[in-house]
Amino acid sequence: MLDRPTPSSAAVPPVPPEDQALLDAYSRAVIDVVDRVGPAVVRLDVKTGGRHGGTGSGVIVAPDGLVLTNSHVVGGAARVSVATVDGRNLTAQVVGDDPDTDLALVRIDAPVTLPAAPLGNSKLLKRGQLVIAIGNPLGFESTVTTGVVSALGRSLRARSGRLIDDVIQTDAALNPGNSGGPLVSSHGEVVGINTAVIMGAQGICFAVAANTASFVLGELVRHGRVRRAYIGIAAQQFTLSRRRQLAAGLMQESAVMVATVEPASPAERAGIAAGDIILALDGTAVTGADDLIRILVGDKIGRSVEVVTLRNGEHRVVSLVPAERPHRG
User: Do 134 and 30 contact (CB within 8 A), yes or no?
Assistant: First the structure.
């Protein structure tokens, strides 16, 4: 009896070599991304009325000191403090913020050359894909969490009241202070800007897609604000099946499906309804919700544009006149 191993003394079976190789590859992928992108992640300290107003994260997107973050982190502030991973404390001004997408741009005052992270193409993301979040949750600097893309094409209501379309859902753990930090792919590209956590839920966190961030970044650099047209819909990316493509004679693999239509909006006046699939707007193919955001820029306001839709398998072409969305500062 004494020669027989008891359950408590039994040796833990070794990890099979093939499983160990997978774990090692996963670890190397995460470490590589953190080494490349981590130095571009900063802590932002905001003061309002001479008092400390809060802390968030940001990601440097240009070596001369352009930092992308959340509107709810720096909105209402003229200046912020930026702390880099290498210990520098710098002052910066808020170039502009866009509450409708919860994004903002900050520029560091001093002439600097800093490590920057590239923005990727969020349209290429797949559910289940590995993603890494880097930020400063609850004041713990340079924290790394990992997870997967849980869902794509979500809509999230911004503090301005507008729905942010094409939001990424992830189970990478986020906490207050992660806001404004990057969600990064295993290729080391920023695919989203972390923006929201559902308090009380586990593994349900959200990031604004990088393609939306890229558009907003360009507008804020050029104009200091985003002047955009609006047609009055909430939409999400929709994958066109091969059967639907062949039946409708389509080449594109994706479009957007209208989820809701606002009353008395340009879309409602044009006869667009929930469930319609938008294929093109003003002669440009629409393959995702971020395409709508990029197409509906200031020069579309007040002029008639054509919208190509698919309803019950039939093509429809309607005209509408986008209005200007009131700017919410």
Answer: no
Q: C-alpha 154: how far from its chain's center?
A: 10
Q: Rounded mean pLDDT of 115-119?
A: 96
Of 316 and 298, the structure prediction assigns the larger pLDDT to 316
- Active-site amino acid positions: 72, 102, 179
Q: Number of helices and strands (H, E) in the chain? A: 6, 20
Please say whether the beta carbons of 131 and 244 come within 8 A: no
What is the average pLDDT across 17-32? 81
What is the separation, in whole angstroms, between the first and last Cα of the chain? 78
Q: What whole-number distance in Å separates Cα of residue 186 and Cα of residue 34? A: 10
- pTM over cut 0.70: yes
Locate all alpha helices (DSSP H) within the chain, ordered by sequence: 17-37, 71-74, 210-223, 242-248, 266-269, 289-295
pLDDT at 62: 96
CA angle (56 as vertex; 53, 57 as ends), nearest 5: 155
User: Per the structure block, which two tokens stand in for 29?
Assistant: 């992928």
Q: Which residue has the tokens 């393959």?
A: 287
Q: How far is residue 280's CA from residue 303's CA, in Å, rounded to a whole number?
A: 16
Do 196 and 138 touch, CB atoms closer than 8 A? no
- According to DSSP, the β-strands at 89-98 and 143-157 are unpaired
CA 283/CA 304 separation, integer angstroms: 12
Mean pLDDT of 63-79: 92
Name residue, tokens 């080494």. Answer: 35
